[in-house]
Amino acid sequence: MMGKGTVAACLLALAALQLQGCASAVVGAGATVATAASEERGLVGAARDTQTRIEINSLWLDCNEEMYRKVNLSVIEGRVLLSGIVPTQQMRLDAVRLAWQAKGVKEVINEIEVNDGAGIGTFARDSWITAELKTRLLFDRQVQSINYSVETVDGTVYLMGIAQDSGELDRVQSYARNLAYVRKVVNYVRLKDDPKRNRT
Fold first, then answer.
1. 159 and 185 in contact (C-beta within 8 Å)?
2. Residues 50, 11: contact at Cβ < 8 Å?
3. pLDDT tens digit string along 110-156?
4. Burial of 147 (0-12, 13-18, 19+ CB in 10 A)
5. N or C: the chain end with fewer CB closer than 10 Å?
6. pTM tops 0.70, yes or no
């Protein structure tokens, strides 16, 4: 009989196969398993979230390819954060409705904006903000960057994940607030010892 770790590794390998081309699947799966093992949510938790993410993306893609391309998705311990800019209110509602249909979803946080005039310049700035913040967190030894998810939409930075303590979280938020072009920082990070984590 396979243990939990083996089951999680198999799930992550399957996720890698579904998300990548077959040629790089073995290497990708190994890297994914190694990364997940060092996360605060653990190997099994990371595997569950990966499977939830795959299912939501599949539901979106089947419904509307534009939705799949325009809505950002973060999944941490069954908490699903949706962000991005879509052209219609109906697409926004459909993205949320479909996210709730995926197995393992315990909460859906809807930060999707409706605006049919978002341009390439906005997207480029947002991409730069996200990349710059992830880089700064990665090279800060006082921050376990692997536990954080970062998305940026029209200058608003959305943080999600698990912080070791309030000091670490303050550092992460400070980095985000002090980046060029950032208008606002929205925090959905939970502390490592938050009782709500056990309930979810």
1. yes
2. yes
3. 999 999 776 778 889 999 999 999 999 999 999 999 999 999 999 99
4. buried
5. N
6. yes
